[in-house]
Structures are given as structure tokens and as C-alpha cells.
Amino acid sequence: MSEIKIPQNKIDQLLDICNEHGNQPGELINILHKAQHLFGYLPQEVQRIVARQLGIPVSKVYGVVTFYSFFTMTPKGEHPISVCMGTACYVRGAEKVLDEFRRILGINVGETTPDGKYSLSSLRCVGACGLAPVVLIGEKVYGRVVPGDVEKILKELE
Amino acid sequence: MQNIVTLQIDNHTVEVEKGTTVLEAARQIGVHIPSLCYMNLKDMCITNLPASCRVCVVEVEGRRNLAPACATRCEEGMKVHTSTLRVLNARRTVLELILSDHPHDCLICPKSGNCELQNLAATLKIHEIPFAGARNVLPIETSPSIVRDMSKCIYCRRCEMMCNEVQTVGALAAVNRGFVSTISPAFHENLADSECTFCGQCVAVCPVGALTEVDHTNRLLRDLNNPKKTVIVQTAPAVRAALGEEFGMKPGTSVTGKMVAALRQLGFQKVFDTDFAADLTIMEEGSELLDRLTRYLNGDKEVRLPILTSCCPAWVNFFEHQFPDLLDVPSTARSPQQMFGSIAKTYWAEKMGIPREDLIVVSIMPCLAKKYECAREEFSTNGDPDVNYSISTRELASLIKRANIDFETLPDEEFDQPLGESTGAGVIFGASGGVMEAALRTAYELYTGKTLDKVDFEETRGLQNIKRATIDLNGTKLNIGIAHGLGNARKLLNEIREGKSEFHAIEIMACPGGCIGGGGQPLHHGNSELLKARSRALYEEDKHKPLRKSHENPDIVRLYEEFLGKPLSEKAHHLLHTHYFKK
Ligand code: SF4
Ligand code: SF4
Ligand code: SF4
Ligand code: FES
Fold first, then answer.
1. Is the ipTM of this complex over 0.85?
2. Is B76 one of the annotated active-site residues of the chain?
3. Which residue segment(s) compose the domain that B181 sits in?
């Protein structure tokens, strides 16, 4: 079990979120959305706190978290890498780019490197189709990326 | 008669109450529409109705689509066909799809021979599976009581319903989505790290081999064949009322004598009875009740009432997890299983001159939580458990079959002495309300000094969710409550927490119906008549016992004289009581 301790002020904010929603089990999804916004992800401890507040089993909370793909239990890396898989990017080889990130970083989509530096995800169209294939790292946009660029991009980030 | 509707099912005309499902109506007239996800324990209002498997589809005239019989209500004039070619084909396809994502391990599956899916595949004569789909393969996980092999799960969600709605434990939930969805504790933890109480009710309802008990039969066979060891056995009250079912005997047949004979044939040196320890439990728990009651009546403000029974280890687990603020409310008396182990490995072993390390105490239990209870640290001395391990009623049946014993023709034999002597009070421990009734028989006489003329307390019997009664103890009104199923227990616990409880004493059993409906019993496959029959068998046995009050058990009297002193003595505290932990 991960032993990451959440700072008290964040716990208080989480409790506030639950209270704002009246600690209603019916509000679980909305609460989890806000919690994920607050923490960037939904670690076990957060799920346990929410379960206790709403008076529901933690297994139910976990069930909901794993059911919806927009919830995640992995913290984002220092450099969150997103590869666009919209139609335009896809047809112009985004998958190969993604595979190259996978290969070099040794992680899959939805995962974070053990040192916490990089995380990998795929996106639906970001609206920059002219630049396809597009990779987003943090706020920065990389256009017309080919697999051969990947190593260089990662070097730049170090 | 507007509450009655008339309909036609195949070529039968049926009259049923409005609201009855087609499936139930058909079963009433002996038309058995197959089902998988559906389960209905009517007498306890426990139903699982996700209508998700579609095995029960039937044709209803005038409707375009096939209808799931389990979720379709009977209507006036309805015409239902349960086995047209269209229905049979649809049912076959449904089953083939389920089987395409199911391991074909029947030959070596612990559930083989008792699996609803396997039976269905046989009935529908499925001999090949045209859909060669990918399988969701998951690791097999064990805990002290339960094995989870989720590759075999068919997603009927009966276990989830039991754990969440009936038991309100919530250890299991549906997680993930689509192909990789499964039923699991939070964070895919082991059940042992979750809030699971090991009541085994999920195991009792799982139609397939996804949830089964931890099997100790091979270990037992090894021990029985070890000449260095003395292996003795204790049998819980509820086992004798159900074991016969595994051999095709009529539900409700009490097989006490045959069970004793079979255990002797299996090679146990002594066949003892947990009922003896149940009588002992009454002496301790009953005395604790009277002690608290007397102190309360004398104006002691500190005393905690109501007192709660503590003989069900799943219930103990439940309050340790869910009500850590109320740990001083339950009785400190150990369960009969543990009292037996403790006395066997001290009093009896000393008497017989058997060194502790050469004595193996095995228990036969209707219960899966008892497996876990044996392993609790506080119940062992220098690493040697008081009860080495526990096997279920089902495991015992399998051992008897393996030993080629023709159970039905066995002669009746008697338990060994002295730990085999018991009263009717010990016997009824196996049914919900029985512990309280047994306690009342003794408490009444000890408190009033009078003889109890009518030993039967009818108010404590039956399958109602929560039972209440008021007993007159020489002018002192004693309010008692009885709950079975942890959801019902939770209601009474919440009242205590809020300071609103009207009771002086409460009996709680984790399993619906009490131990007769335990997680280790022959599977009821959704038939609550079985539980009623088992309970009748116990009350019948009680009625015919020469002694029916625990304090009259001569071997219990001797145990106190020779060894323990009196109830709640220091020695009794040390050997027969326990304490609880926040979880
Ligand atoms: S044993 Fe009881 S508490 Fe544990 S998962 Fe099964 S139903 Fe739930
Ligand atoms: S584990 Fe058993 S009871 Fe639970 S959903 Fe799967 S098949 Fe059904
Ligand atoms: S009610 Fe009986 S069978 Fe069920 S968990 Fe409790 S002791 Fe075991
Ligand atoms: S039994 Fe009716 S849908 Fe499963």
C-alpha cells in the first residue's frame, strides 16, 4: 500500500468539498471530480476519506473510480506527456510516436515513471490538426513530431 | 379477488398473487425455468434481481422480445412459453457466451458437482463453445477463510448483494468496466486487509467456483495418519441439522448419531461436541449478564447495558471494524469453538496426560469465520492454537465420501465423554435466537432461584429479521433483542450508539437464520425452506434431550468443581474470556 501522507490543509479542503455536497452518497461522482482537481489524482487515502465522510464502503468508491476513465489513481509526472490520438494525428503516425515514448520511458499510457518525472497519456483532438501529430508536454505544444524526435524532446526536458 | 391473476405457463393454467414473477409462478407448478443471477430467500426478504444473465428468458405471447422470467411480473391472461425452440436457442447462446469467458476447469474445480453453471451446461447439453473469446484471467487469492478465483466469476453479483445489502459490510464491489470488470475489495486488496468479516455469505451464494472456502481436508488426513498425534474433534450444533443434505437425505433430518459414527471411522480418537462448550458459554455469558444486570439494578452507573452475545466470530469482526467505540458492550465470553479448544488443551489434556504439542483439536463448523477465528493470535499458547483448524460441514461431507463411508446406513453412535455431554440448550445455539433462549433458561433459574416450568421461549424463534421479547425475572423486566444478518445487527448497534436502545441483552448472529445458514453449510441455492427445516431439526433435538438447561449439564458442573471454580472466576477469565481490538 502506498504510504503517501496527505498534508492536513489538503485534507481539510477535501472535507470541505464533501460538506459542500452535503456528504451525500449520491454526490460521489461530483465530489471525486473536485477531489481529483485538488490532488491531481485519487490516491487510496483520498478515497478512504471520502468513503468515511459519505458513510459508504470504500470498495464502492473504488468501484466508481475504476469504472470511469476520467478518474485516475496514478499521480501525474513532473512532465506530463500527452500524445494526441485525434483522427488527423492518428493518420499521420501518432501511434508510432506514442510507441516510441512507451519504449524509451518503459511505461504505458496512464502510468508514471518510477522516479516520478514523466507520465504518459493519450488525448482526443486538441484542435491543432494543422500541426499533426501533436504532443503536449505540460503547457508546451510540439508539432509534426516523428518517432525520431522523441529522444531529443526528452533530452531537452532533463 | 383482484389480487389474483390467472395466466398460462406452457400448458398449465396458474393462479398467482399479483406481483409474482413468471419465474416464481412457474416454480410453484413445478416448471423449473433455469436461472443464474436470480436468487430469492423469501423468508428473509433477501433477493438478488439484476436480471443480467438472461438465462431465464421465456416467450410471452404478444411481445416481440423474449422476456427474463425472473424480472417479468405475471399479468392477467398472459400466455408464457418456457421451452419453445426460440427460447431454447436463445438460452443456449446466452450460456455459450458465458462459457466462452469461463475456464474449462470443471474436473479440478472445488465447486464441481455443486456448480449452478456446470449443471446448466449439462441440462442444456452444451458440448462445444463456438465463441473462442479472450478470457479475463485473474490471479487466485486466499485469505484465512475464503479463496477467490475471479477468473471463474460470471458477474451475477449475488455476493455483492449479500455483502452490501444484507450484511452492510461492503467489502466487495464491482470494479473496473467492460471486459476487465470484476468483483473485488477496494484497491484489489486481499479480503484479509479489507473490512471483510469472513461470514462467508458471499461464498454461500456464489453459483460457481469463484468464491470457495479454504480447504483443510488434506491437512486433516495427514494429521489423522500421524501416529504421534492425538487428533480429537468437536462438532458445532448446526452441522448435524444439515450434513444429511449432502448425502441426499431429506432437509431437516438430524444426523447426530451417524455423524459421530462417521467421525470415528475417519479416525478421530475422541469425538466431542461443541454443544458441551455451548453449555459452558451459557454459564459464563449468562453469569456476565446477571452480573451486569444486578449492578445496574443496584444503581451502578458505569455498567454497560445491553450486553451483546459474542459467540459469532464474524460478528466480532464486524463490531471491531465498524463500531470500535463500542468494544466494551459485547460480552467478553469466547465463542464455544474457542472455549472448547481452551478446555481441551488444558483440563482434558492434563487429565489424559497428553502433552499439548501432541494434541490436535479440529472443529467441524457450519462457518467460515471460524477458520479465521482459530488463527487469531490471542487464541494460542506459545504459537500453538487452541483449535488447530476448522473444517466446514461441506468439507466433512467430502471427507466422508472420500473414505467410502455409506453415510445413510451408519448406525447411530454416542459422543465421547466428558466433553461430549450437552443439554438441549447447547443444541439450539445453531439457530437464530437459540443462544438467547439457552441463556434465559439458565439466567432465570440462577436469578430467581425458582425452577423454570416452561423452558420453550417461542418469541425467540423464527426467521423474522429482528425479534423482541420481554421476560419477567421475578418482577424485573428483561428486554431482549435478537438479530441475525449483520445489516439487522447494525440497526441495533446504531440504537446503542445513540443511547436509544431499549434492550438489556441482545443476541447477534452474522448469518441469516443463524449458524444453520452459515457460510460453510451445504449450499441452499436460494431455498429458504432448507433453513427452516434445519432449524426445526435443532428444536426437535432439544425437545428430546433429557436435560435442557446448561447449568444442569453434569460434566459442566464437574468442570467447575474440579478445575474452574465458578463462572467468571480468575481461571475462567483467563481461559474462557477475551478482549477486542479496534480495526
Ligand atoms: S465473507 Fe461476508 S463480509 Fe466478507 S466479503 Fe463475503 S459477504 Fe462480505
Ligand atoms: S464471485 Fe460468484 S457470486 Fe460474486 S459475482 Fe462472481 S459469480 Fe457471482
Ligand atoms: S452466524 Fe454462525 S455460521 Fe455464521 S459467521 Fe456467525 S458463527 Fe459462523
Ligand atoms: S436469472 Fe433472470 S436474468 Fe439472470
1. no
2. no
3. 116-213
Domain boundary residue, one of B187, B213, B239: B213
Ligand 1 centre from A135 Cα, in Å?
A: 47
Ligand with an atom nearest the CA of residue B512 = 3
Contact A1 B187 (CB under 8 A): yes
Residue A48 lies inside a defined structural domain of this protein: yes
Choose the weakest-confidence range: B292-301, B419-428, B435-444, B530-539.
Answer: B292-301
CA distance B322 to chain A (A): 11
Give A60→chain B minimum CA distance, Å.
6
Mutate to test the pocket of ligand 4, among B33, B48, B54 (most ligand atoms within 8 A of CB): B54
Tell me whether residue B260 is in a domain: no
The residue range of the domain holding A149 is 79-157
Q: Clarify whether residues B128 and B49 are in a common domain.
A: no
Q: Where are the alpha helices (DSSP H) in B165-255?
A: 201-205, 217-224
How many Å apart are CA B451 and CA B58, to the nearest integer? 61
CA distances from B200 to A85, A102, B48, B370 (A): 46, 43, 17, 10
Q: Is B202 a catalytic residue?
A: no
pTM of the model: 0.89
Q: Which of B170, B187, B189 sits opposite A60 (nearest CB)?
A: B170
pLDDT in tens, B421-445: 999 999 999 999 999 999 999 999 9
Q: How far apart are CA B15 and CA B29, in angstroms?
A: 10
Task: Based on the residue annotation, tell me whether B258 is a catalytic residue of this protein.
Answer: no
Kindly list the strands in the beta sheet with B67-68, ordered across the sheet, starting from the edge strand earlier in the chain.
B12-17, B4-9, B79-81, B57-60, B67-68
Among A1, A60, A68, whose Cβ lies nearest the Cβ of B173? A60
B64 lies in a domain? yes
pLDDT tens-digit profile of B178-231?
778 899 999 999 999 999 999 999 999 999 999 999 999 999 999 999 999 999
Residue A149 cell numbers, joined: 524526435
Domain identity same for A33 and A88: no
